[in-house]
Design a protein that fits this description.
CATH architecture: 2-Layer Sandwich
Strand order of the largest sheet: 1-5-4-3-2
Largest sheet: 5 strands, mixed
Radius of gyration: 13 Å
Number of domains: 1
Oligomer: single chain
Number of strands: 5
CATH superfamily: RelE-like
Distance between the termini: 25 Å
Strand content: 25-35%
Order of helices and strands: EHHEEEE
Number of helices: 2
CATH topology: YaeB-like fold
């Protein structure tokens, strides 16, 4: 089983998304987002599936929901780093990893 590390910005993005969902939508939508992230993290820990490559070297992406994409990188066979939970409605030119 692999270890999943969260970058500081990934943690901030994650909690910002939850705050937004609680403020603008409902607890139900926030919980669905939390559950989806948990499921993806579980899959990444198992190491059986790798998600889509990006045009950035060593960076992969996974759509959490239609609004949010997770960017991550494989450090080595035992470690993965979550980099960003990116809102798909933002300008991709502003995406920094």
């Amino acid at each position: 089983m692999r270890i999943v590390h969260w970058s500081k910005i990934a943690k901030l993005d994650y909690y910002d998304n939850i705050d937004f969902l609680l403020r603008e939508w409902s607890e139900k939508e926030a919980q669905e987002f939390i559950d989806e992230v948990y499921e993806v993290e579980f899959v990444l820990k198992q190491g059986n599936i790798e998600f889509q490559n990006t045009d950035m070297a060593g960076i992969k992406r996974c759509v959490i929901c239609k609004q949010i994409t997770l960017f991550y990188r494989i450090i080595d066979k035992r470690n993965i780093e979550l980099l960003r939970f990116w809102n798909n409605y933002q300008d991709n030119k502003k995406l920094s990893l």
